[in-house]
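Listing S7. Sequence submitted for prediction.
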Amino acid sequence: MARISSLGYALLGLLHQKPSSGYDLRKIFSSTSMKTYSDSPGAIYPALRRLEEQQLIRSTIEEGVGLRRRQAFRLTPAGLAELKKWITAPVTREDMISGSENVVLRFAFSEQVVGSRASLELLRCLETALEPHLATLREEYELLKKVAPTSGRLAFEYGLRGVEALLQWTQYAIKTYEKQIKSNGRRAS
């Protein structure tokens, strides 16, 4: 199977939530916090076509208002399996180096796709990956601050503080899920 882009996974996650047309998906990308993805037809429609060629989604023509018809896309069982595999994959060092945006995207879809316990597991995996990454960054910072100009040092601090904030948020999110799961367990008893 061909590699799936970040946009492709975002599309799979959105289509898991509800079948949608390319136009519907473009509106989501242009009007929500998912603006980091292009809402251009030149990005969305080729990505949908690739997912359909991989048999991860399928399209049907639906009757619309008046004479209008629309092409709606839905996840296939293979698409759902691929989405679950992506969400539950271990968080790697490469994920930390390339930026945590994809891990956060995986988390955003996790509860609805694989459940709250898997969401918690993803958070724990993120915490485990963040701690050594942060330690490495702090070591680099100690060497850098001795030789870098102020602008270089401050730019590095910006990235360092972002990773520190992500770790703090991850620990907060873990506690939130642990509390929720514990509470739900008491109600089920």
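Caption to Listing S7: primary sequence and predicted structure tokens for the chain studied. The chain has two domains: 6-85, 90-188. Helices lie at 6-17, 22-31, 41-53, 77-88, 93-98, 101-114, 116-147, 150-188.
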